[in-house]
Amino acid sequence: MLHRGAWGNNPAYGTRIDTAHFDEIQPDFTSGFVKEFNFSTQLYNAPFIFEDYDEVGRLAAAIPGETMNYAVANSMAPLKMRTLGIKTPDDAARHLIRQISVREKQPGSFSIHGKPVLFVFNISAFTPTEWKTILQKVRAAIPGQDLLAIGQRSVFEVLGLPNPQAYMTEVLAVFDGIMFWGGPLDAKLKNLEFARQAMKTLAKNKLLFWVLTNGYWRPEKGMFRGPIGTQSWRDQLELCFKDQFDGVIIESWNDLEENTDVLPSVNKGGVIFELLKYYSAISNGHEYYAAPPGLLLTQPREILAGDTLRVEVLSLPVKIPRRTFRLELDDDDDGATVYRSPEQLVPPDAAEEFIFSIPTRSLAESKRLAYRIVVDGKTFATGSWTTLRNSRLESPWTQGAVLGSQIPSEEISFHLRPEGAMRKAEIRVRHDVPLSRVDIYRNGHPVWSMDADRLNQKHDWQHGPVGIELDFQMPQYDEETPDRSGVMMVTGGALVRGFDMRGESLVTAPNRAEWNSPRQPGVRQFNVKLLADADDSTCLTVNLTKLNQTFSFTMGELRGRGIVEYKTSPHGRVWIRETDNPVIWKYMPGALGTGVDETVLLHPAGEIHENEYWLWVVDKDGKTFRSQPVTIFHEKRKGEDAQWLWDETAGQRFSAMVSRDEQMEEAWSFDGTAARVYPDEGGSGALLRLGGGMFRVGHFEPDAVPSIVERASEKALHFDGTDYAQIDAGAFPQGAFEMSLDVCPEKFTAFDQTLFFNQTNLTLCLKPDGRVDLKFTEVEGAPQPQELLGAEKIPLNQWSHISVRYDYQKLTLEVNGKSTSVPLAQGPAWDVSSESYLGARVGGTQGTQVGNGFTGQLDNLKIRCGVLAR
């Protein structure tokens, strides 16, 4: 099925795109651009540079200068205010003046390349009158500087005020403009009405910015997590043009790190960015022509077998003749073509949308589909693929390809196979343009790089490559020094390479690395990555020189505990963990040349059960190549079973034979050495973190860590009513599943005690009367979740076993062998969008606990992705 529609050339589009804003981009004092670490805690021009900052620099160079009228600094957000203890207007004024006094002498504080900086303030904490006083004090402290102050507040909060029109008028009397953040379309447009009326009342024009919140600080969230391609992006831009906003602010929130993929990247391939350039040109009345053939492909990285595969192809205007194209899908295992679309007419001046809807039940035996697009008889291998899953989706977001930016696939080959305990990769590249980077990726992380000085070839490994990361959370108070400079010494191993977040090399001797941390007040985060030649017996000693603090641990202890955590001051700490990608990489100073022939032996350290390896090549012109992935199982599981899947087209379940490698069962028990982070025993790579995630990934709460207690010959988690454990996003399955856990409550309370909580799908609670309650949402957008209540009260201070099963036909809750069921045959929800929690309901972007805590013990959590047909 094909849907074809016109878009993009509507003459009604008249508003300029004035602002391209990526929350992590701030001015740097030397390079021009930096990448901030946390979207909601950014400070004025914090001088942080990551090893991939050159990619951010290319962003600025690629956007036409006339479309970038502003740069943006995010200056005050709720999390920062809470962290800094800002409670009064005087507190806020002092904080802002202090930040400006530190940085006002540096270039880029108030303009970047001649473009003024917008300072965005979350204004919900103070009244407009209080903000007037704050801004007066700040402006008085910076005479001669033009501070463009933009107010930001949730449109829902504004609508909930007693007189939102009066409030908006007061805000725009104080601020130079406002940005409409959060909430659905109708709420934003209502706020726009208030703002337009306010400007009439004030008889002054103010800057009004539409906000495209396309990303989220968790990788599985964001505008592009569903099978809708770029539709939301294009709809939002169209609305911005038609309603004559002064500009659009694009929040991508840690784009280069966390899969929101606005920038050209290994996952999105630049599709979203290409659309930004297109709309920037036409909204300013300029011509735009894409690189031939002018086609953009967007498709899901993974779907469940039986779902409808929705593929988007967009055409952009090109200067060369272009007549037709067709889409082809190959089975990546045997190369057989499993889908070929009819020829589609695509004139060279057209900006059109083509949506292909492809049923997949008949493709259930395929493992991966590779995409080709044939344009006027010429074949373009896109380097894109969709994996058909029979159980858990591991990458529920989309990826894309800009055909005009692809290196021809016939010039590159990549082969990989197991060789003993290692992985042998063979690479061959022939290309006329010098290369910038040649990387091998595993599960989305680089594990070998040509631009890392041929690291794996030069080092004579004695043990094996181990990636180590030190993540410092700085104190935010003047009485605590922010300096986290230090030295790491290694005994029984060697340090091979290391970088801090500025990209500076750290290794000064085979057994020594040294780093200097930022000393500016307000700098919140510092990160160090090291590559070591180490094994479990290797000892690592960290000395924080300015704090006169020293601590040591072995690699075996680090692996057993998951994370080494050290409190560096009353309000600062450092987390140390082993990283997934043992090769530290950054951009080369020069070109590699036009040819590469390499045989590489890769160490399997960091592999999970199922691993996807692929090759990524970038040349000096910015063209890219992404190979089809090669799947390597760390340990092959023999046999297959019949499993229930869902046919979205027919609206019914069906049975298919599924390899045991795809019947993922995640399991967490808490026996052995006590730790704070527990990896899934089934090998999926999902982590369970006591007290929440590391900083910026769920916001670790040290006071919410459940304790480890003895349970006969086992161990269990003990929760005191305020504790919780967080499970990685995506660990809870989409579609059919089975889940079970052991429960030992200590008391019944007047409120529901949370046993297991997944915000999108499932909540398991203990009611005040002692019965177990299950709420389950099987399809996205369902008005009410299905609810089941256990037949009998469970005992206090005794272990009970609880299980939940959903098989596309019914939902079953079983408590101590007694089951209750309800018919359900509506198929899976496609949106896998949240972390899961044990012991408490946790919500909000800061991982804030919101109550309903459990008192008692939990143990032996198991989640089976997919249900056997029996």
Low-confidence stretches: 1-68, 215-227, 253-261, 452-457, 586-590
Sheet of most strands: 8 strands, antiparallel
Q: What's the alpha carbon Rg, rounded to whole Å?
A: 27 Å
- Report the average pLDDT across residues: 77
So how many helices?
A: 12
Cα end-to-end separation: 34 Å
Helix content: 10-25%
How would you explain this protein's 3D organization?
This protein is mainly beta and 870 residues long. The chain is built from twelve helices and 58 strands. The strands form twelve sheets. Strands 41, 44, 45, 47, 52, 53, 54 and 58 form an eight-stranded antiparallel sheet that branches. It has an eight-stranded antiparallel sheet with strand order 42-43-46-55-48-49-50-51, with no helix packed on it. β39 and β40 (652-659) form a beta hairpin.
List the helices and strands and how they pair.
Blueprint (H helix, E strand, L loop, with lengths): L1 E5 L18 E2 L7 E2 L17 H10 L8 E6 L1 H7 L4 H15 L7 E2 L2 E8 L5 H14 L6 E7 H5 L4 H11 L2 E5 L3 H18 L4 E7 L17 H12 L4 E5 L3 H4 L12 H13 L11 E6 L1 E3 L3 E8 L8 E8 L5 E4 L3 E2 L6 E8 L8 E8 L2 E12 L8 E5 L9 E8 L2 E9 L4 E8 L2 E5 L5 H4 L6 E9 L12 E6 L2 E7 L6 E3 L2 E4 L9 E9 L5 E6 L4 E6 H7 L1 E7 L2 E7 L16 E8 L7 E10 L4 E3 L3 E4 L6 E8 L4 E8 L5 E4 L8 E3 L7 E4 L16 E5 L2 E7 L4 E3 L9 E9 L7 E6 L3 E5 L5 E5 L9 E4 L10 E7 L3 E6 L2 E6 L12 E3 L3 E2 L4 E2 L5 E11 L5
Parallel strand pairs: 4-6, 6-7, 7-8, 8-9, 9-10, 12-19
Antiparallel strand pairs: 1-17, 2-3, 5-6, 11-13, 11-20, 13-17, 14-15, 14-16, 14-18, 18-19, 21-22, 22-35, 23-24, 23-36, 25-30, 25-34, 26-29, 26-31, 27-30, 28-29, 31-32, 33-34, 36-37, 36-38, 39-40, 41-58, 42-43, 43-46, 44-45, 45-58, 46-55, 47-52, 47-58, 48-49, 48-55, 49-50, 50-51, 52-53, 53-54, 56-57
Helix pairs in contact: 3-4, 4-6, 6-7, 8-10
